[in-house]
């Protein structure tokens, strides 16, 4: 579904991605792990089309989208869950949900979203930034489900959440996967990652250092944790 | 005023330097020669801002008309064949005025600077004229300081001043319209000067200033309603609102005076300083019945009208009093040079002092030797109702001629030439 | 008491102009991150356009009230396409220079044709009288301006808060990049929003023509206060700009009425308020600190 080849990216003079190549098959959940500054978020931004200084190939369903602006990529079925949760202060919860157009074959109707997230329904007329951090994370996920996105780009969706909420996020992603949604996930929580994902890429200094499956991550958990500095 | 030896030496050195650099003729010593063989008149005024319509480029045109008339009058006998005009835009900024004036005198061989509206700029140029010992006829500015504490031997104040305006409008309005005044003035040098002059004139005529307010200057909101609403509530109720605002601010005050229907509420309007161009902006209907003091009016008599017709064929518009005064000033300067046989400043000044003059602008005019105030008849004018306006720009009827001797103040003891 | 009410009313009328101008600046800044220095020039063009339409084509005030804002909005959109949008990716200084230069050009073009002297424009005859409020009467035209400006502000507020268009504009304004990532072509909204802001300036200009001196520099002084208003309200805040607009109108009117013995204060009161607000809330009364990227 997603194929990245020789992707390099810069922030001004500093190169943050060095010829990264990876691919994600339809229906897969793949995580990117790595230290802070390894280039994980930049990679997601490059896929989304939000990063200007990049070179290389980004293919979606076999189509090169490298020249497409972000809004056109979104319409091809990309769902963006940014690391700051992307809540609009000037939009109510409902507006946050209904702002993006449907981009995939199976968008959730608003009623279904509210059924799945009763907490959001209770606060539907509040400004989105008035919600708690966990609620905002739910809102961000609910939004891309409502869009019917086929490939979710999730940037650390569990960061700063309570264990209960982390569990809930995990269930959501698994549920999405059951419906055939593909997910590319930036994640520091290895335990969470192995719980939802099929495969993992370890990014180090802007390169893909290793590709691992769940069992490999589990067996090397101690080593990886100390490498990640957690 | 005394000058220190140092300054004198410096300016003397400057003169030598300039004479050396200019490569023109020798510094004239009153021996019947012209510097550089030509006469150069400098018009320094506002060519792009608020005063560019009432003086501006059309003042330059007026000066050119004066030169043409002078040449026609003297023909071969004219003291110079080569009489030219230099112009510069001072943007109403004192610093710009000062440096442009220096440039004119030093590098453009200008013999006399004319016009210079905006009081603060006018005073700066007077300092330059004094230092360079070159002539300066101020026309466009109102401050009495030019013939008061800032007067000097080379500076003449030609057309009008705040005393003339206050004395004419303040005194007559107090006598004829009502004794109680509310004065609204822009809160900076000109406005404060006007407020003082008006208060003095009103009190002297037996009137009373029941209130006076300085409005912000520049008034960024363009709104004067706070003051206009206050006027009818004062006790005793003022008979007259005297506004000292000029240009666009005057337009705002008058528009809002009409909006709040103050005339219907028994508060008449008197305007401190108004040019024919202001009436044109506001339309006579908005100002009908308003009295003000005018230094000259284009449709006053046949002589003025003839000049105005010529001016209109040159410029497409009728002359303001400043335009006529520029014409007159240039003419009188050229006449003085012709009579003296030299453009040497000291000799020309000597010829001008005390001279009695009558021309299209100066009626019963006299160039006072004591303070270099050029006195002449002034006019109390009233804006006609729209129904009486017979032709474009014919907005005013002259109620009364104020004789020259009464129109201007006596020479100030502050002035020591 | 009567005096106080009158001054309050006048403050609101002045505030109406500030609000309309600040509202336009705020939507433009929000959407483009461009401080439009030419806003005062478009206000002037609105007033001058009304004058020219009346004197040269006999078009009355009421028609000008529609024609000028629409015409200027189209001009604004053309300018946005031709110039402004080419510079939005660069340092904000470039658009500052562009819009400032545009101001000078527009002012001088008008000056060249019509001179600096104010041009006459009369109050439409239907609004020439006074409205009796019992305690005091008030010029009908001022009542009209206040009502009209409030109606426009409420209308804009309604569109922004109650319609899908408004929702998209708010989203584009608050977080343009994020909004693109949600499949919305932010660029497509930029041009009409710029035109809309310019149209509001033109509308304020037409409203000003009967009560203010119509001359090429009429926007130049006013716009300085409007920038202060926008900063006080919070850069880019729609509600803040309107509230601060009316608020500053009131503060100025009360200052002139009750602090007339302290001209230094009454003349600078807008900037005193601005300084105090910025010390207290650096992002303005209703502004938010920029979200981290």
Brief digest:
The complex is a heterotrimer of chains A (230), B (417) and C (293). By secondary structure, chain A is an alpha/beta fold.
What does this entry look like structurally?
Chain C: Keywords: Amino-acid transport, Cell membrane, Membrane, Transmembrane, Transmembrane helix, Transport. Chain C: GO terms for molecular function: transmembrane transporter activity. Chain C: It is found in: Cell membrane. Chain C: It is a multi-pass membrane protein. The complex is a heterotrimer of chains A (230), B (417) and C (293). Helices cover 37% and strands 27% of the residues of chain A. By secondary structure, chain A is of the alpha/beta class. Chain A has one domain: Rossmann fold, CATH 3.40.50.300. In chain A, the strands form two sheets. Chain A has a six-stranded mixed β-sheet, with helices on both faces. Chain A has a four-stranded antiparallel β-sheet with strand order 2-1-4-5, with helices on one face. Chain A starts with a strand and ends with a helix. The termini of chain B are close together. With 417 residues, chain B is α/β, with parallel strands linked by helices. In chain B, helix 3 (94-107) packs parallel to helix 4 (119-132). In chain B, the strands form four sheets. A five-stranded parallel β-sheet of chain B has the order 2-1-3-4-5, with helices on both faces. A four-stranded parallel β-sheet of chain B has the order 7-6-8-9, with helices on both faces. Chain B has a three-stranded antiparallel β-sheet with strand order 10-14-15. Chain B contains 14 helices and 15 strands. Chain C has one domain (2-121, 135-280): ABC transporter involved in vitamin B12 uptake, BtuC, CATH 1.10.3470. Chains in contact: A-C, B-C. At the B-C interface, strand 7, helix 7, helix 8 and helix 9 of B face helix 1, helix 9, helix 10 and helix 11 of C.
How many domains make up the 3D coordinates of chain C? Answer: 1
In CATH, what is the class of chain C? Mainly Alpha
Q: What is the end-to-end distance of chain C?
A: 52 Å
Total number of helical segments of chain B? 14
Could you say how many structural domains of chain B there are in total? Answer: 2
Q: How helix-rich are the residues of chain C, as a percent range?
A: over 70%
- Tell me the name of the CATH class of the largest domain in chain B: Alpha Beta
Please state roughly what percent of the residues of chain C sit in beta strands, choosing from under 5%, 5-15%, 15-25%, 25-35%, 35-45% or over 45%: under 5%
Radius of gyration over C-alpha positions of chain B, nearest whole angstrom: 22 Å
Shape of chain C from CA axes? globular
The assigned structural class of chain B equals alpha/beta
- Molecular shape of chain B: globular
Poorly predicted regions of chain B = 1-31
- Please give the CATH architecture of the largest domain in chain B: 3-Layer(aba) Sandwich
Overall average pLDDT of chain B: 89
CATH homologous superfamily identity of the largest domain in chain B? Response regulator
Domain ABC transporter (chain A): 2-230
Organism (chain A): Micromonospora endolithica
Protein name (chain A): ABC transporter ATP-binding protein
Family (chain A): Belongs to the ABC transporter superfamily.
């Amino acid at each position: 579904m997603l194929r990245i080849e020789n992707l390099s990216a810069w922030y001004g003079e500093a190169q943050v991605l060095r010829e990264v190549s990876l691919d994600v098959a339809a229906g897969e959940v793949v995580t990117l792990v790595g230290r802070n500054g390894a280039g994980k978020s930049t990679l997601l931004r490059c896929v989304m089309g939000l990063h200007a200084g990049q070179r290389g190939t980004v293919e979606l369903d076999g189509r090169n989208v490298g020249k497409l602006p972000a809004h056109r990529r979104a319409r091809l079925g990309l769902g963006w869950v940014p690391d700051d949760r992307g809540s609009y202060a000037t939009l109510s919860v409902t507006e946050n949900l209904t702002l993006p157009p449907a981009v995939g074959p199976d968008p959730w109707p608003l009623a279904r979203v509210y059924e799945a997230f009763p907490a959001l329904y209770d606060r539907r007329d509040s400004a989105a930034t008035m919600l708690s951090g966990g609620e905002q994370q739910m809102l961000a996920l609910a939004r891309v489900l409502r869009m019917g996105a086929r490939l979710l780009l999730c940037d650390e969706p569990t960061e700063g959440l309570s264990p209960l909420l982390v569990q809930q996020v995990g269930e959501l992603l698994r549920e999405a996967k059951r419906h055939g949604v593909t997910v590319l996930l930036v994640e520091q929580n290895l335990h969470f990652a192995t719980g939802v994902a099929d495969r993992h890429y370890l990014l180090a200094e802007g390169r893909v250092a290793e590709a691992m499956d769940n069992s490999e991550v589990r067996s090397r958990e101690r080593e990886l944790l100390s490498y990640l500095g957690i | 005023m005394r000058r220190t030896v140092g300054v004198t030496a410096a300016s003397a050195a400057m003169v030598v330097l300039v004479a050396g650099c200019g490569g023109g003729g020798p510094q004239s010593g009153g021996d019947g020669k012209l510097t550089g063989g030509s006469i150069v008149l400098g018009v320094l005024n506002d060519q792009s801002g608020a005063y560019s319509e009432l003086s501006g480029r059309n003042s330059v045109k007026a000066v050119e008309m004066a030169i043409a008339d002078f040449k026609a009058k003297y023909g071969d006998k004219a003291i110079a064949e080569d009489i030219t005009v230099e112009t510069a835009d001072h943007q109403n900024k004192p610093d710009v005025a000062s440096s442009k004036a220096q440039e004119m005198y030093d590098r453009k061989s200008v013999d006399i600077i004319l016009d210079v509206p905006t009081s603060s700029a006018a005073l700066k140029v007077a300092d330059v004229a004094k230092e360079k010992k070159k002539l300066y006829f101020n026309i466009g500015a109102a401050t009495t300081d030019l013939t008061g504490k800032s007067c000097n031997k080379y500076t003449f104040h030609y057309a009008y001043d705040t005393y003339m305006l206050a004395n004419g409008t303040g005194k007559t309005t107090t006598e004829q319209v009502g004794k109680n005044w509310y004065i609204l003035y822009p809160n900076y040098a000109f406005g404060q000067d006007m407020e003082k002059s008006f208060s003095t004139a009103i009190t002297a005529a037996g009137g009373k200033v029941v209130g006076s307010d300085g409005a912000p200057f520049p008034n960024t909101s363009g709104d004067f309603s706070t003051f206009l609403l206050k006027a009818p509530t004062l006790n005793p109720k003022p008979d007259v609102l005297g506004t000292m605002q000029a240009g666009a601010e005057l337009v705002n005050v008058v528009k809002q005076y009409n909006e709040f229907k103050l005339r219907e509420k028994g508060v008449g309007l008197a305007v401190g300083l108004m040019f024919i161009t202001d009436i044109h902006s506001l339309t006579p209907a908005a100002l009908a019945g308003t009295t003000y003091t005018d230094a000259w009016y284009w449709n006053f008599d046949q002589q003025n009208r003839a000049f105005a017709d010529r001016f209109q064929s040159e410029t497409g518009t009728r002359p303001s009093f400043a335009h006529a005064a520029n014409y007159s000033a240039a003419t009188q300067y050229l006449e003085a040079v012709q009579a003296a046989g030299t453009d040497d400043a000291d000799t020309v000044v000597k010829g001008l002092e005390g001279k009695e003059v009558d021309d299209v602008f100066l009626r019963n005019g006299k160039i006072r030797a004591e303070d270099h105030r050029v006195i002449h008849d002034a006019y109390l004018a009233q804006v006609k109702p729209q129904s009486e306006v017979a032709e474009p720009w014919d907005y005013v009827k002259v109620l009364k001629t104020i004789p020259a001797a009464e129109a201007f103040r006596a020479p100030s003891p502050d002035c020591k030439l | 008491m009567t005096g106080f009410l009158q001054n309050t009313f006048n403050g609101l009328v002045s505030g109406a102009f500030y609000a309309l101008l600040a509202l336009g600046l705020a939507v433009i800044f929000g959407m483009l991150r461009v401080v439009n220095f030419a806003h005062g020039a478009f206000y002037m063009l609105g007033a001058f356009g009304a004058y020219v339409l009346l004197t040269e084509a006999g078009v009355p005030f009421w028609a000008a009230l529609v024609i000028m804002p629409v015409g200027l909005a189209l001009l604004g959109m053309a300018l946005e396409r031709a110039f402004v949008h080419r510079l939005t990716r660069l340092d904000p200084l470039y658009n500052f220079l562009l819009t400032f230069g545009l101001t000078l050009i527009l002012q001088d073009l008008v000056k060249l044709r019509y001179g600096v002297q104010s041009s006459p424009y009369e109050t439409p005859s239907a609004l020439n009288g006074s409205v009796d409020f019992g305690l005091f009467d008030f010029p009908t035209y001022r009542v009209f301006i206040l009502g009209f400006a409030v109606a426009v502000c409420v209308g804009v507020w309604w569109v922004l808060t109650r319609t899908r268009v408004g929702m998209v504009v708010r989203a584009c304004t608050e977080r343009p990049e994020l909004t693109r990532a949600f499949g919305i072509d932010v660029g497509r909204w930029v041009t009409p929003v710029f035109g809309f802001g310019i149209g509001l300036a033109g509308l304020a200009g037409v409203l000003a023509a009967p009560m203010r001196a119509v001359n090429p520099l009429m926007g130049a002084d006013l716009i300085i206060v409007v920038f202060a208003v926008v900063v006080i309200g919070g850069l880019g805040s729609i509600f803040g700009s309107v509230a601060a607009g009316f608020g500053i109108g009131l503060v100025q009117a009360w200052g002139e009425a009750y602090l007339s013995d302290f001209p230094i204060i009454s003349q600078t009161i807008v900037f005193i308020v601005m300084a105090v607000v910025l010390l207290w809330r650096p992002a303005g009364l209703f502004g938010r600190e920029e979200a981290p990227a």
